[in-house]
Write a structure and sequence with these properties.
The protein has about 290 residues and is mostly beta strands. The protein has a single domain, classed as Jelly Rolls (Sandwich). Helix content is about 10%, strand content about 40%. The protein has 3 helices and 17 strands. It has helices at about 35, 255-265, 285-290, and strands at about 20-25, 35-40, 45-50, 55-60, 65-70, 70-85, 90-100, 105-115, 120-130, 135-140, 150-155, 160-165, 170-175, 190-195, 215-230, 235-240, 270. The strands form 2 sheets. Strands 1, 3, 4, 6, 11, 12, 13, 15 and 16 form a 9-stranded mixed beta sheet that branches. About 40% of the residues are buried. The structure holds 2-acetamido-2-deoxy-beta-D-glucopyranose (2 copies). It holds the Pfam family XET_C. Keywords: Apoplast, Cell wall, Cell wall biogenesis/degradation, Disulfide bond, Glycoprotein, Glycosidase, Hydrolase, Membrane, Secreted, Transferase, Transmembrane, Transmembrane helix. Its EC number is 2.4.1.207.
Length: about 290
C-alpha cells in the first residue's frame, strides 16, 4: 500500500489566499494542450502533438516526464481522456491529479499502476485535505485502459468531490466540514500529470519490476475539458454556459448512487475505510459518516 505520497515534482512555495471573489465569465472550454498546459519536466519526453490536440508522456530508464496546467482552479468539472501505457507496463505509474502547494496542501489523485501484459492495471485514488491523505481507494477497471482513450473526471464543488470513469462515478468525498473534517475549498489547485518509474511499490507491491527492454513507455492524453473556476491574482472566475453551470451544485442522484455502489461492490480492491489493521485506534471519522 502506498500510504506515502509518490514522488511528485514538488515545490515548497507557500500560498496566501487573501480573498476570494467569485465572478461568472462565459467561456467556451475548448481544450488545447498548447493553450492549457506547460510541459514541466522530462527533457523532451513529453510532447504536444497534432496542433495541441494530443499530448504524450514517456518514460525510459533515464527519466519520466510530466506536465502541469497553466491555470489554477478553485472548483470545477474537469475531464481528460487518457490512453495508458500498453503491453508490459509493470513498474510504471501514470499519475493524473489536482494539487495545491505547500505542506497543508489539498490534492485529488488518480494514479494508474501498470502491470504485466494481460494483467489488470490498478486505479489508485486518494484525497488530501490540509496536507493529510491516507484515504486510498483502489479499483480494477471494467475495460482495458490501454486499448482506447477513456474519460477520467473530477467533479469538485463546495458539496463534494466525485471521481468518474467514463461518466460512471466511482468515489465520492463529501464535504463534512460540519463534522470537523477538512474539505478543499480555499486553496486553488493545478492539474498535473506525470509518468514515472515506481517499481519499488507499484506492481504487486514492488515484486514485479519495470522491464526496461520495453522502454520507452508512453501514455497519451486528449480532449481536456474544464468547466471550472479559474484562479487569478486572488480572485476566481468560473467558466460555464447556461446549460452547464450545474456542475457547481451537482451531486449524486439515485442513479449515480447505484452506479457507485456497483463499482464499489464489483471493482474496488482496497478501501482505507475498511482497513482496521491500518487504523488500530479507529477508522478515520469520514468513514462512518459517509
Ligand atoms: C497485477 O496483476 C496481478 C495478478 O493478476 C494482480 O494481483 C495485481 O493487483 C495487478 N495490478 C498491480 C498494479 O499490481
Ligand atoms: C455548454 O455545456 C454543455 C455541457 O458541457 C455542452 O454540452 C454544450 O455544448 C455547451 N454549450 C456551449 C454553447 O458551449
Amino acid at each position: 500500500m502506498t500510504s506515502s505520497s509518490p514522488s511528485f515534482p514538488s515545490t515548497s512555495a507557500n500560498m496566501f489566499v487573501s480573498f476570494l471573489a467569485m465572478g461568472v465569465l462565459v467561456v467556451a472550454a475548448v481544450g488545447n494542450f498548447n493553450q492549457d498546459f506547460d510541459i514541466t519536466w522530462g527533457d523532451g519526453r513529453a510532447k504536444i502533438l497534432e496542433n495541441g490536440q494530443l499530448l504524450t508522456l514517456s518514460l525510459d530508464k533515464t527519466s519520466g516526464s510530466g506536465f502541469r496546467s497553466k491555470n489554477q482552479y478553485l472548483f470545477g468539472k474537469i475531464d481528460m481522456q487518457l490512453k495508458l501505457v500498453p503491453g508490459n507496463s509493470a513498474g510504471t505509474v501514470t499519475a493524473y491529479y489536482l494539487s495545491s502547494l505547500g505542506s497543508a496542501h489539498d490534492e485529488i489523485d488518480f494514479e494508474f499502476l501498470g502491470n504485466l501484459s494481460g494483467d489488470p492495471y490498478i486505479l489508485h485514488t486518494n484525497v488530501f485535505t490540509q496536507g493529510k491523505g491516507n484515504r486510498e481507494q483502489q479499483f480494477y477497471l471494467w475495460f482495458d485502459p490501454t486499448k482506447d482513450f477513456h474519460t477520467y473526471s473530477v467533479l469538485w464543488n463546495p458539496q463534494s468531490i466525485i471521481f468518474y470513469v467514463d461518466g460512471t462515478p466511482i468515489r465520492e468525498f463529501k464535504n463534512l466540514e460540519s463534522n470537523g473534517i477538512a474539505f478543499p475549498k480555499s486553496q486553488p489547485m493545478w492539474i498535473y500529470s506525470s509518468l514515472w518509474n515506481a517499481d519499488d511499490w507499484a506492481t504487486r507491491g514492488g515484486l514485479v519490476k519495470t522491464d526496461w527492454s520495453q522502454a520507452p513507455f508512453t501514455a497519451s492524453y486528449r480532449n481536456f475539458n474544464a468547466q471550472a473556476c479559474i484562479w487569478s491574482s486572488g480572485s476566481s472566475s468560473c467558466s460555464s454556459n447556461s446549460s452547464s453551470k450545474s456542475w457547481l451544485t451537482q451531486s449524486l442522484d439515485t442513479t449515480g448512487q447505484a452506479r457507485i455502489k456497483w463499482v464499489q461492490q464489483n471493482y474496488m480492491i482496497y478501501n482505507y475505510c475498511t482497513d482496521t489493521k491500518r487504523f488500530p485506534q479507529g477508522l478515520p471519522p469520514e468513514c462512518s459518516l459517509a
